Write the structure tokens for this entry.
Amino acid sequence: MGQRTVLRHVRRFGAFGASVGITTLVGVFAIPIVIGNAGQETWGIIAVGQSIALLFGVLVSFGWGTTGPAMVAGMPAPERPQMFFDSLVSRLYLFILALPLVALTVLLVASDDVAVSFTAGVTYLVPFLGASWYFVGDARPGRLLVFDTLPVTLGTVLGLVGLMLTGNVFVYLFSQLALSVIGVCASALLIRRNADEAPRVDLNLRRAAARLAGQRHGVITAATSSLYVNTPLLVISTVIPAGRPLFAMADKFFRYGLTAVGPLVQVLQGSIADPVPAVQDRRIRVATRLAPAVAIAGAAVMALCIPWASRLLSSGEIAVGYGLAIPMGIVFGAVTISQIVGLACLIPIGEGKALASSTVLGAGIGIPLIIVGSLTVGVDGVAWALAASEITVAVYQLAVVRRYFRRRQAEPKDQQHSSPDAS
């Protein structure tokens, strides 16, 4: 890899990292402000609404958020805007479909404050209509920052100011909702304006539905992953309501950790795929060796930091012990591996089906264990159940990559110079 290529990747990592840094910084500062002005119970209810949004956000994004960056990166630039607008129309219909499902889920798991939880659900669902995945695949971190990250961040900041001035949590939520809508619209207008040929907006419902078929592996992967990542807080909210703020706090740090790993995954998604199989294979080997090292370091930091950071950010109201912090650290480490190996390595080698299968396997193991853990051990049991399922996913994906290289070594030399078939 030449010096120029390395510098390009470093600059891209820094630009993607700027988005992550801003989002994480504002999110961390939001925790004590919301808890201090609205109370830990309301904060926990907002977290439940956010989990519901993340759950149904998979329906709205329908796999484009998972496989979209690689699709955009591998597509001729003039064709990209039309693909985005086709996806946007399909996702708008899915957003309309998701709203009553969000309301029903809120009634089932957050009946103690339906209005706050539903408003939070809608607020955090809107960004799934955005273009973040498109900007990643298009290698445009600056546009990601300006048109995706900044509107959401500004909405949070204005909402926090409004919450401190009024004490009304709906001011906090509606500010975020309004700026998220503006960000989605601005992203779409930018893509349309910069297109070589203005993309068509095809509102035909049948064709919008037909486009979803090509996203089957992506949506299966995203749906099952979201299901068992967001199920724990929903189960705890139903079975152990008193443990909701505690787990929500640990879960918040887990998600901030994933956000921090995001720039690395985004750079790898845009750089591993290569028309020369030998080059692509070499990059995959580097990534799969890098993943465990990053995961172990991240898991240790997460487990050590959650206990004292939770007390600091909640002014001592929410204290997460090591019994919960350690399994959440393990969860973070395992998910880091599956993010790097699954999203950045399996798609280029045509293993989209294996990616989907790994998440289905994790959900099949994790969801029953989460329910059993909540009923027997409590909040810590839920975290250990999640850790077991995520470790299973990571091991499965690493095994798929290992199998791929064994198969490549067994091929004749002339076949090793041809690209693997897409799944």
